[in-house]
User: What shape does this take?
Amino acid sequence: MLYMKYTNKIKKIIIFAILLNLIQCASSSSGITTSNIPVVNRKYTVLGPVQNTEKWYTFDVALFGFPLDKPPIDKIVSRAISEKNADALINIKYWQDKIIILFITVNRIGISAEAIKFEDDGTIKNVPKK
Assistant: This one.
């Protein structure tokens, strides 16, 4: 009888440990950058704010991860620029998070920025030194 009592507790602890390892918490990171291309000495008009989010998946086993898709960083920036018919993005805030479900990791990246349109012909003007 005593043997059965401890066997059930051990089974419950093992099942709990397995479930805890298979379903993990989310993690996230974020950052900020000034622009996606140099805008020094160029006049521009702010068209408005843009926000976009994309996701991609990876297959993870222990320490090894195998991407099922490429991170869509160029895609998210291109879509944000074309959304406002802009030339560039400034004041870019980005974030990334991931959620692990069994062996599949769902990665998301999002940006928030201001779209701009250049007023000049695209050449950088050199300011003469005095």
In short: Helices lie at 2-22, 73-83. The domain at 23-118 is CATH 3.30.110 (Translation Initiation Factor IF3). The beta strands are 27-35, 44-61, 64-67, 88-101, 104-118. The two ends are 96 Å apart (CA to CA).
